[in-house]
Design goal:
The protein is an all-beta fold and 249 residues long. 0% of the residues lie in helices and 50% in strands. The chain has no helices and 23 strands. Strands 2, 3, 4, 5, 6, 7, 8, 9, 10, 11, 12 and 13 form a 12-stranded antiparallel sheet that branches. The chain is globular.
Length: 249
């Protein structure tokens, strides 16, 4: 059986048939607008606890309420406004990324067309409860990253790299998380990845090789998914910085 492969994301959706019509919003979910939404799912777990893809939609405003999933988003075109219960309002524009934790009391607003990559964690065992302490989290691409210390040299074919890691959100189960990571040049020992991870490269370039020897080359600006269970050997010959969002069953 052939090994799994890295899934490259495209803002136009599937390479052969593009985006699908994702249907109308139920009228009771809308405060205003008649939104038209399309999308493509690149990865979906059997139970749909974790799924990820690309989505676009015309202007609209949803009914206020607790956000019913954990969601990580990269805005590709347009902008999205999240208005919090406190009255604080955040606009996330093209080139920015953000996270909405499950239970965040907020209102989703769009005063223009928006296109995004997304990753959603929807675990029915975690009850939906409005938590006023939660709010949308803007990902600072230039944040200072705490150094990772005490690394195991056995993980690398190269010298142990200098690595930084900032977790911006982790759900109550600890299975879904998102943040920013960077690393000096290195090559990992080949292994099998034990999580599904969406990656967006901010700086640098490198490669990921699966168990069949298929090489996926990446560079700044690329977005892709590494599915759980895939043979995984990461190599970067220059500094790399990425945003990540992962789910570990």
């Amino acid at each position: 059986m052939a090994d799994l492969t890295v899934i490259k994301y495209d803002r136009k959706g599937h390479p052969d048939y593009g985006m699908h019509d994702w249907g109308a919003y139920p009228p009771e979910a809308l405060q205003s607008g008649e939104p038209v939404q399309t999308g493509h799912t690149y990865l979906d777990t059997a139970s749909s606890i974790f799924y990820s893809g690309v989505w676009d939609c015309t202007p609209h405003e949803l009914v206020p309420g607790p956000y019913d999933v954990d969601e990580f988003m990269i805005v590709l075109e347009g902008s999205i406004i999240i208005e919090h219960e406190s009255g604080k309002s955040d606009r996330f524009s093209a080139g920015e990324s953000f996270i909405i934790p499950k239970g965040t009391p907020c209102t989703w607003k769009q005063d223009e067309y928006a296109l995004k990559f997304f990753a959603i964690h929807d675990d029915p065992e975690i009850p939906l409860q409005a938590d006023p302490s939660l709010q949308a989290i803007r990902v600072d691409h230039d944040a200072d990253l705490p150094a990772v210390i005490g690394q195991d040299p056995g993980l690398y074919e190269s010298e142990v790299p200098e690595m930084g890691w900032l977790t911006l959100y982790k759900d109550p189960s600890g299975r879904f998380q998102a943040g920013v990571w960077d690393c000096s040049p290195m090559k990992r020992v080949a292994t099998t990845i034990e999580r599904s991870e969406l990656m967006h490269i901010l700086e640098g370039s490198g490669s990921i090789t699966n168990a069949d020897g298929v090489v996926f080359n990446f560079k700044a600006g690329d977005t892709f998914m590494v599915p759980i269970g895939m043979g995984y050997q990461w190599q970067n010959d220059e500094y790399v910085k990425k945003i990540f969002c992962s789910y570990t069953p």
